[in-house]
């Protein structure tokens, strides 16, 4: 895809923001296992970076999806994975269905402050019993006296401790599992919501929570689009989420490889630099080639999506590849750092911990393979 000067301007703006407003604070935020999302979002909102693809009438820039993906790639300059993931939840995971299908009233109440950076959002789909099987969610939103009354629990919710609202997937009827679910906008200060922090092995700058809903009452007007369309809307959101995951991983992979080349050039072993060993520089060249192949796949999918195509297969391929390649790059590079790579604050060890989530969150590798096989027509007869 050919990028315009406007694309590059957004990339430069985000890169400067990351270098000035995020990276100096990463050690502190990693140690605290949380970052000040409201403060960071407000600054990003002032730059117009939280609503790049959304209409100007709601505070967005009114640009196409490719500009949002330029931002996602530039966020890869962060020295951790948690902050970009948190921002991506706001821009490409909890707001797409709201922006596309939400009522005017819901957009004014939830989308406008999210774009401005005045509110932090989260997406509440996964549950303690599982995350990848979206059709199996158990949380219910039953109609009582004209309102929804929500009961259940949601798990692994990024921004969950700081969010002002969540876009919640719940069963609103007893019908077929793909037609009985709805997306509902839920203010996080509603009575009956409680939160519990989840301690993770990576993505530590980003807060993650389990959410509990005990007879939480919200108006029925808070449903996004039509009741019963939640599963379909969530599947549509996944296309953008998975493309975001692929795009946001690219610059981080380049960054880790660059740092490893620099370190191995300076590190001496047995009378010469580690980089001088053919096994090392050949491996780094191979990994760089893999990154560029992923970049080509990702931007092909983005270009087609902007053109109106269904890119479910390509987005699934890109999501699969970024998860696996991120693990491969971090593991290979850590090896060449030796003992330094095994220290906690080393940039490669941070990537090693953070990148492991890539093959789990937003749809596991196995789910991506299942989607690809289904669309390739290679599943055994009777499989779904």
From TrEMBL:
Names of required cofactors: FAD
InterPro entries per record: Acyl-CoA_dehydrogenase (IPR050741), Acyl-CoA_DH_CS (IPR006089), Acyl-CoA_Oxase/DH_mid-dom (IPR006091), Acyl-CoA_Oxase/DH_mid-dom_sf (IPR046373), AcylCo_DH-like_C (IPR036250), AcylCo_DH/oxidase_C (IPR009075), AcylCoA_DH/ox_N (IPR013786), AcylCoA_DH/ox_N_sf (IPR037069)
Domain Acyl-CoA dehydrogenase/oxidase C-terminal, chain residue ranges per copy: 228-373
Residue ranges occupied by any Acyl-CoA dehydrogenase/oxidase N-terminal domain in the UniProt entry: 4-118
Acyl-CoA oxidase/dehydrogenase middle domain residues: 122-216
Keyword Flavoprotein part of the UniProt annotation: yes
Gene3D superfamilies: Acyl-CoA dehydrogenase/oxidase, N-terminal domain (1.10.540.10), Butyryl-CoA Dehydrogenase, subunit A, domain 2 (2.40.110.10), Butyryl-CoA Dehydrogenase, subunit A, domain 3 (1.20.140.10)
Keywords: FAD, Flavoprotein, Oxidoreductase
Record-stated family: Belongs to the acyl-CoA dehydrogenase family.
Name under which the protein is recorded: Acyl-CoA dehydrogenase family protein
Organism whose genome encodes this protein: Pseudaquabacterium terrae
Organism classification: Bacteria, Pseudomonadati, Pseudomonadota, Betaproteobacteria, Burkholderiales
């Amino acid at each position: 895809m050919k990028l315009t000067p406007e694309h590059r301007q957004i990339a430069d703006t985000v890169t400067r923001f990351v270098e000035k407003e995020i990276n100096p604070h990463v050690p502190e935020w990693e140690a605290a296992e949380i970052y000040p999302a409201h403060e960071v979002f407000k600054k990003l909102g002032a730059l117009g970076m939280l609503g790049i693809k959304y209409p100007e009438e709601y505070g967005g820039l009114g640009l196409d999806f490719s500009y949002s993906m330029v931002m996602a790639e530039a966020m890869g300059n962060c020295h951790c994975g948690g902050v970009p993931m948190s921002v991506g939840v706001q821009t490409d995971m909890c707001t797409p269905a709201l922006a596309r299908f939400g009522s005017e009233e819901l957009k004014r109440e939830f989308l406008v402050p999210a774009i401005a950076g005045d509110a932090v959002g989260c997406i509440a789909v996964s549950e303690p019993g599982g995350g990848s099987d979206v059709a199996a969610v158990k949380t219910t939103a039953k109609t009582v006296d004209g309102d929804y009354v929500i009961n259940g629990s949601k798990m692994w919710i990024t921004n969950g401790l700081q969010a002002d609202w969540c876009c919640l997937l719940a069963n609103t009827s007893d019908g077929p599992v793909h037609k009985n679910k709805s997306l509902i906008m839920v203010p996080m200060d509603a009575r009956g919501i409680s939160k519990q922090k989840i301690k993770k092995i990576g993505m530590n700058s980003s807060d993650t929570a389990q959410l509990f809903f005990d007879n939480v009452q919200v108006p029925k007007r808070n449903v996004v689009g039509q009741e019963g369309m939640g599963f379909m809307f969530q599947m549509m959101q996944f296309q953008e989420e998975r493309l975001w995951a692929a795009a946001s991983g690219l610059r981080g992979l380049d960054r880790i490889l660059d740092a490893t080349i620099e370190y191995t050039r300076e590190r001496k072993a047995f009378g010469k630099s580690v980089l001088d060993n053919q096994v090392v520089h050949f491996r780094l060249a191979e990994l760089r080639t893999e990154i560029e192949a992923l970049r080509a796949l990702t931007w092909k999918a983005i270009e087609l999506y902007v053109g109106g195509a269904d890119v479910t297969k390509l987005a699934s391929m890109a999501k699969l590849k970024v998860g696996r390649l991120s693990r491969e790059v971090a593991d290979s590079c850590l090896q060449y750092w030796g003992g330094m790579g095994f220290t906690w604050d080393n940039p490669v060890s941070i990537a090693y911990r953070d990148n492991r989530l890539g093959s789990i969150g937003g749809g596991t590798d196995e789910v991506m393979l299942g989607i690809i096989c289904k669309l390739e027509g290679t599943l055994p007869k009777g499989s779904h």
